[in-house]
Amino acid sequence: GGGTGKVKQNAPIVLTQMCLALTAIGMLITSAIMGVPIVRDFQRNTASIIYTTPYKKWQYLGGRFIGSFIVLMFVFSGAILGFLFGYLSPWADTENLAPININHFVYIYFSFMLPSLFFMASIFFMGGALSRKILIVYTQGTFLLCLYLIVSSAVGNLDNQRLASLFDPFCLGALEVETQYWTVAEQNSTLPPLSGLILQNRLVWLIVSILSLIATYFFFSFNVFVLI
Q: Distance between CA 209 and CA 213 in Å, rounded?
């Protein structure tokens, strides 16, 4: 990926788009990390041991989620570091690069990538914890991919742009709508602001993430056998 025309290859808008795209593409990685913490206890027959210890449900679920999410954050930080090292490499095309600004990388990671990762982490964790089946986790991934493709198509329709952008869990649609009239100078120097449609999108999916975790806690049964 990279800029086109006079837009620099490491322009803030380009870097944001590429990081969000990698977050979406990495959905399989997210499901593999966040969907299996609870499932693994049943696959390895350790659930009966763990569930008889004096752990409380919130401690068990919180420990599994936080530990897995830290790993997820570390894995996807590779995208940011990869771009940074790529731009600093001796073979980089310096003529098409703007001056490197570390603050841009930090801002994009925490303002755009982490909210999307938190949403996916919450959804996949809920699916694995409540179903205890890895097939459900992968089904969720397929559903999210279909949702993203549908929303991407709808964003091109002027009548549905704003509404469709809110239903894009990766914020690419909202980013496109909010920055579609930016000048070349703005694209090369301005970070996408957390306001307007972008902020609304982030808040919508943050609420969905929190509700998913709440549902996981209340509907999770701290028993080895669950009657369905």
A: 6
Give per-residue burial for 182-201: e unless 16+ CB within 10 Å, then b. Answer: eeeeebbbebbeeeebbeeb
Which residue intervals of 156-183 are DSSP H helices?
A: 161-166, 172-179
DSSP annotation of 132 reads -
Task: Give the whole-angstrom CA distance, residue 140 versus residue 144.
Answer: 6
Q: CA-CA-CA-CA torsion for 53, 57, 61, 62, nearest 10 degrees?
A: -100
Alpha carbons 179 and 117: distance in angstroms, whole number? 22
Is residue 134 within 8 Å of residue 128, measured between CB atoms?
A: yes
Q: Which residues of 136-162 are buried (b: 16+ CB within 10 A; e: fewer)?
A: bbbebbeebeeebeebbebbeeeeebb
- Which of 201, 143, 193, 146 has the alpha carbon at shortest distance from 172? 201
- Tell me the per-residue pLDDT of 172-226, one tens digit each, with 9 for 90 and over: 888 988 888 888 888 888 899 998 899 999 999 999 999 999 999 998 876 655 5
**Token pair 């952008």: residue:** 165
pLDDT at 39 over 90: no
Classified as helix, coil or strand, 205 is helix
State the Cα–Cα distance between residues 115 and 132, nearest whole angstrom.
25
Token pair for 89: 């490499």
Using an 8 Å Cβ cutoff, are 192 and 12 in contact? yes
User: Which CB contacts under 8 angstroms, 24+ apart, belong to 155-164?
Assistant: 162/197
Is the CB of residue 200 less than 8 Å from the CB of residue 162? no
